[in-house]
Write a structure and sequence with these properties.
This protein is of the alpha+beta class and 169 residues long. It contains four helices and seven strands; from the N terminus they run αααββαβββββ. The protein has a single domain, classed as Nuclear Transport Factor 2, Chain: A, CATH 3.10.450.50. Helix content is 30%, strand content 39%. Strands 1, 2, 3, 4, 5, 6 and 7 form a seven-stranded mixed sheet that branches. The longest helix has 26 residues.
């Protein structure tokens, strides 16, 4: 019984250790950056995006090719600075959210966030997919270095069931 008590104390001390608290704080900081990213998407505002990105940040998306054979994808890769230059603030209303809790992996100055999302344009469902975001901690702040996503217009279980706030349903 004594050995079992010692094992329980050791396990509990691990989960309440300063390292565990540091991990939780880093995870919260990474997810807070992604919340600000979704806010920047909603605002369609390049000035909200810039402080979230590394200098050389890039994005990569995969979407169905409407002119290719079934299952064919179009891959688009751009420097984020080019994407920001193409934005027209306020022209369109976007809404993106996680579908469930994203996976967050952190080791030292790098982090990866992977999660399913849905995306709405002007209050209407557009698509769902997976976001994968690579982050770097630079001068004490998390920044997005690379953002990848899939665009999946079909097979999205929550699209019609749970519209975002203000979608008019």
């Amino acid at each position: 019984m004594k050995h079992l008590s010692i094992a329980i104390v050791l396990v509990l001390s691990f989960f309440t250790s300063p390292a565990a608290a540091d991990d939780a704080a880093e995870r919260a900081a990474v997810l807070a950056l992604l919340d600000r990213t979704f806010d920047a998407i909603a605002a369609n505002d390049p000035d909200m995006w810039r402080p979230l990105l590394t200098e050389e940040a890039r994005n990569l998306s995969f979407r169905p090719d409407p002119e290719g054979p079934e299952g064919a994808l179009i891959m688009r890769e751009r420097a984020d600075r080019d994407s920001l230059a193409a934005m027209t603030p306020g022209e369109t209303r976007y809404f993106e959210r996680w579908l469930g809790e994203p996976t967050v992996l952190i080791r030292g100055p790098i982090a990866v966030v992977w999660g399913e999302y849905d995306f709405w344009i002007d209050g209407k469902f557009s698509h769902c997919g997976v976001d994968t975001v690579n982050l770097a901690k630079i001068d004490g702040a998390w920044k997005i270095a690379h953002f990848m996503w899939t665009v999946e217009p079909e097979g999205c279980a929550t699209a019609a069931d749970a519209p975002p706030p203000g979608a008019g349903r």
